[in-house]
């Protein structure tokens, strides 16, 4: 290795150790029994780089010495936890990585520093935001994503060859992860932003169900439910682009201007409503659980049905059949219908036809939301919601026509 490159690698290791050491010294300022800080961590990281430069034997000996030192720190401290000790070992390994692959060591070091600095928010999130039920649901999600998915065959099966089990299950995982993100946001910020955040986050889980929830809240909280009811549709548009991007990036790219225009109109409306209406404090989450075995299997079944129906419609009736299938599917789930249409483009149908089918699914799904709004919040709530949604619908239509 050239001298200049070697010096750069050593400097990278030193910088990573300094970053971690400053953070640890700041965090352990009140604990004098943990000496590792802004000087010790850079030396440990530099030792890792030097050990990697000298060879595997030297690296192993240096690692053993650092591990023994870390164990001694841990035994003499009176405070619970071993974050600083583990961070010291990590600094050594990052220093060794900096000698071989500095382009990987730098982002890894930044991630470690962020995790160390986010001590209080992470503790609050784990203890106050996430419940035992959420942990169980997260475990189910991990099983679905990392155990079930790799076992599924990744080849076309079934009628018309459109049923790829691995692809269908990957779409289920993608939709679930998006819904999980919205659910966690509602749990984390619901008390602060009330019905607004609950409506937006709930839209990622189920836009129709959350609209019904907002209707019930309207009867109890009045106009305070309106920002959340409108925000549901922002989540619907965002998720539409996200899930179609998994199924067919060209379709998502064509949807982006229309969805962006509609979301921009809705955000302006939400801002106005929030400014004119005092947000309510919601004392309990209004969203459904984002993941369960029943929900995953149900979503997979809906996707399989829509894929077969949409492909059959394309075969029998052409592009008009795909659009009709999308409109019909939007009555049940706009995103599943959009995924079915996008999955056929551009191999079986033109991208434009898939985009129109997604628009039809959005339109019929909006009608379903207004029907649920009437049933739960009353005709007045539904009429007002429809009036606020009309400009956004027009913006989406213009975006798709453009």
Give a topology summary.
Elements: H1 3-27, H2 40-54, H3 56-76, H4 83-100, H5 102-117, H6 119-129, H7 132-151, H8 165-193, H9 195-205, H10 207-221, H11 226-247, H12 249-276, H13 293-317, H14 319-330, H15 334-343, H16 351-377, H17 379-401
Helix pairs in contact: 1-2, 1-4, 1-5, 2-3, 2-4, 3-4, 4-5, 7-8, 8-9, 8-11, 8-13, 9-10, 9-11, 10-11, 10-16, 11-12, 11-15, 12-16, 12-17, 13-14, 13-15, 14-15, 14-16, 15-16, 16-17
Mean pLDDT across the residues is: 78
Please work out how many helical segments DSSP would assign. 17
Q: Would you tell me the structural class of the helices and strands?
A: mainly alpha
Poorly predicted runs are 282-288
Radius of gyration: 27 Å
How many angstroms does the end-to-end distance come to?
A: 56 Å
Helix content: over 70%
Task: Kindly estimate the percentage of residues that lie in beta strands according to DSSP.
Answer: under 5%
Main sheet: strands, sense, barrel? none
Helices and strands, in N-to-C order?
HHHHHHHHHHHHHHHHH
